[in-house]
Each structure stands twice: as structure tokens, then as C-alpha cells.
Amino acid sequence: MNANSLIILDFETTGLSPNNGDRAIEIGAVKLENGVVTERFQELMNPGRPVSYFIEDYTGITNEMLSDAAPCHEVMARFADFIQGQNLVAHNASFDKRFLDSELKRISSNYDGQFGCSLLVSRRLYQTAPNHKLGTLINYKGIASKGSFHRALYDAEMTAKLWLAMLDDIQQQTNVDEVPFSLVQKLAKTTKANVAKLFANYVVS
DNA sequence: TGCCAGGCCCTCTTTAGGGCCTT
User: Fold this and answer.
1) Residue A200 placed within a domain
2) Chain B positions under 7 Å from a protein CB?
3) Distance of alpha carbon A38 from alpha carbon A193, whole angstroms
4) What is the distance in angstroms measured between the alpha-carbon CA of A169 and the sugar C1' of B12?
5) Which residues neighbour strand B (beta carbon < 7 Å)?
6) Which end of chain A has less neighbouring CB within 10 Å, N or C?
7) Does some domain include residue A204?
């Protein structure tokens, strides 16, 4: 596993649940190396059936756009190569993990990284934020945005910026030189009340 | 057949219910 790099990813899908037959329609991702975006991945994919008007409206991805796209299995095979050997991050990772697992299982593929969740971290770190939607947190942190959320690569880019902002905030509260992925994972699992205690254990005197 | 997400997290909790977040 590469300790200095990370993939931040986001799926657009036909709905909320692969267990109910929902499929991925777009994957967007950026690779962060030492805090800098060094690679990008973005592809639409044809799920083999029409998407609802709600999804067309929500994402701006139309059935016409998907009719020209490569099928899911082709795109996901390329994406599986892209994420090889990398830890992964998503906003509400349990959602994206379900679709990643489901789509890769269909092509008998796999990945070896751990998932980090920017939503869970933000709930510990930004307890006074109005809410913990991606768009709200981007505004809350004063990160510049075009406001055009709900496309995969754009949301992945914004999640990456949020992730870097959170690493900065963790660093300032702990005085560590570099925030290890393992510390962020511990933060996501600790209770809100124990955040200060967790950070105190990392203070360099 | 009929149902239709699911994991996290709070609280009027743990023998449960409901809001948040993702599409």
C-alpha cells in the first residue's frame, strides 16, 4: 500500500442500492500524492437500462449521454487498475463502497485499499457545521467552488479539497508533521466527545 | 408474496426509533 498517495472517488448511480439492482453510471476519481492531485479518472458507463428522470435531473447525465458510453464492465476494469495498491476516500464512503464492491464483483475483480470516509471525519472535526453534506462543508471551509455538484469528477475533486482541509486542521490540533491515514481512520471511529483525547495522544512536545 | 438501502449516530436508548448522508 502506498502511504503517500490516496484515491478520492465518487460514483453517480441509477439509485441508492445495488442490492435493488442499481448500477453505476459514472465514476470520477483523483489521485492525491503528497497533497497534490497528480492523476484524474472520469468515465460515464452504460448500465444497460434507462435511468430515471430523477437521476437525469439530479446528475445532468442523460440517457442519450449513456447510450454512447462504454458498458460498466469495461469502465470498471480500467478503474480497478487505477485504484490498485491505493487507499480510497469518499464522502459517505459506505455508499460508494457498496457500488464499488458490487460492480467489481460482477467482473470478478477486487481492490486492496482501505476506505476512509470524509463524512465521518467531518462529523468529528466540524461539529458546529450546519450539516455535513459535501456542498455545505465546502462552503463552511471557504473552499472555492462552482456549485455544480453531482457529477462524479467534480465531487471527487471537491472531496479531495475537503480532505486536504481536514488534514490541515488535524495537523494543527496535533502538531504532527504529517497526518497518517491510520490517525484519520481512528478519528472516524472515535466518539465526538473523545476527539480531543485522541488528538492529545498525538501532540509532539 | 410483498417488500424495497444501509451504516452511522443521537436519544425520550440498548427489549427502539428516527434523522442524516449518499444516488
Assistant:
1) no
2) 4-10, 20-23
3) 36
4) 35
5) A 10-13, 15-17, 19-20, 54-55, 58-59, 91-92, 94-95, 98, 119-120, 123, 131-135, 150, 155, 188-189, 191-192
6) C
7) no
Task: Answer yes or no: A73 catalytic.
Answer: no
pLDDT digits (tens, 9 = 90+) for A131-176: 999 999 999 999 999 877 899 999 999 999 999 999 999 999 998 8
What CATH number does the domain containing A33 carry? 3.30.420.10
Query: Which nucleotide is closest to the Cα of A131 by its C1'?
Result: B20
Residue pLDDT, tens place only, A37-94 = 999 999 999 999 999 999 999 999 999 999 999 999 999 999 999 999 999 999 999 9
Q: CA of A201: how far to CAs of A49, A69, A83, A163, A173, in Å?
A: 52, 49, 32, 22, 11
Output the distance from A205 CA to B6 C1' rounded to whole Å. 42
Q: Which residue's C-alpha cell is 465521518?
A: A120
CB atoms inside a 10 Å sphere around CB A110 = 10
Nucleotide nearest to A13 (CA to C1'): B23
- What pTM, to 2 d.p., does this model score? 0.94
Question: Please, is A71 exposed, middle or buried when counting C-beta atoms within 10 Å of its C-beta (0-12, 13-18, 19+)?
Answer: exposed
Residue A45 lies in a domain: yes
Which pLDDT score, from 0 to 100, does residue A2 have? 76
- CB count, 10 Å around CB of A10? 29
